[in-house]
Amino acid sequence: MNRIEWTDNLSVGIKLIDSQHKNWIECYNKTAEVINGEYSPEEIARTLGFLVDYTEVHFSTEERAMEESNYPDLEQHEAEHDTIRKAVSKIANDFMADCMTNKLGAAVEKLLGTWLIQHIQSVDMRFAAFAKKNRAGNFPAE
Question: Rounded CA gap, 63 and 78, in Å?
């Protein structure tokens, strides 16, 4: 699995969301580290569990901000989040069932390594532009 590095072109300009995106990338990178390294199945399972939990924390934050700002594309954004929620949970559950790290690494990298960057640069950027334009929610554009 390849690491993801935070760059300014991933910033949506909303401090809380950017902070959570950075944390999520760190979580992804920790997952890559344990999958690629000599870690026990228990450590991999703990890391995947944290990834599942943090995915929920982040998506809930974004969705709450969208609700508060009456974001017109909320339903579509939530649907995309729900797809990823299910996929991340499936990856974690599949690992718990068979402990296959070679398949796990490929699945996590494809799902999150690719999706996360694309999602931030397209879908999240659209919401951030809307929120900043409408000064919506309690999310200052810093």
Answer: 7
For the chain, the C-alpha Rg in angstroms (whole number) is: 16
> What is the number of structural domains in the chain?
1
User: What's this model's pTM, rounded to 2 decimal places?
Assistant: 0.79
User: What is the residue range of 90's domain?
Assistant: 41-133
Token digits for 50?
Answer: 């944290």
Q: Are 81 and 62 in contact (CB under 8 A)?
A: yes
User: Contact 69/40 with Cβ under 8 angstroms?
Assistant: no
Provide the token pair at 139. 């999310």
Dump pLDDT digits (tens) for 61-80. Answer: 999 989 988 999 999 999 99
Assigned domain for 45 exists: yes
